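Handout, section B. The chain below has 325 residues.
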Amino acid sequence: MKLPGGGRLGFKVFLKRLYEEYENDGVADSAAALSYYFLFSLFPFLFFLATLIAYLPLVRSSTVTMMDRVRVFLPGDAAHIIDEHLGALIARPRPHLLTIGLLIALYSASRGVDAVRKALNLAYDVKESRPWWRTELLAFGATIGGAALLMVAVLVLVAGGSGGYWIAQHLGIADSYVLVWRWLRWPVTAAVIMSCAASAYYFLPDVKQEFKFITPGSVIGTASWLAATLGFSTYVSHFGNYNITYGSIGGVIILLTWFYITGFIFLMGGEINAILEHASVEGKESGARAEGEAPPPRRERPSAMPVGAAASVGAAERSPGGVTP
């Protein structure tokens, strides 16, 4: 296949490298850690989101629209947990919490973003060189940006749907508009997900690169995530017996599994972007932060012995480039 920056890479070679990076970077273990961080960050993020939504127009309709979008992908038990908690937050606006309490919630929510940063650094095989305060600001900024993007998308769906329907009524095409808008929500949802993925792949890893909304990782990640979450939701609804196995925490286990699937898919999307860039004529070498920069010896890179990956030198030798003495 032809690479964006020039050159070609055989599909079998690409799959082999993807599997090697999956093993050497411990993607499955990173996704498991991310699922905990996502669960840990979810309710503080909902608290932060609900506090801001309370001061925006179309509050209740925005919340209903947002949950309608989430329910399409989440299994019923997991969606019920989120819906119930978010409804309780929206029902009681807390203006006095727009102080230290909100900062604590924002910090907790940013831990998931920071975990993604560390995992993407591993995908590019680089050690973090930015100071801690800069990575913390990055995590805070990405969390706030994600919340803002979500709220804008929800407001667009609400205002666009209502405003468009009013215009369609006056034009006598209300029924056709409802049908078109029902399908138009899917591209909007996919665009939001792809925007979040593309932004994470650009801002979070400690490498220099141009921002691209459409990348192989963001496209494959978004499409795979839509398919996987819908498939998982169908499986849980018809075949899964999590409540029988785990009792009252069955919904939490389902939510945690969904977070694992989400983290795994988008981490693999980051690995895909890194592999294609490293193989490209104009791309960076594995372990380098910028084009033309010499990478450090392999034994000094973070993927030499990551958590969960094979700890033997032989595992490093199987990856492209081998072990640099």
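Note. Residues 304-325 have pLDDT under 50 and may be disordered. Compare this with the example in section A.
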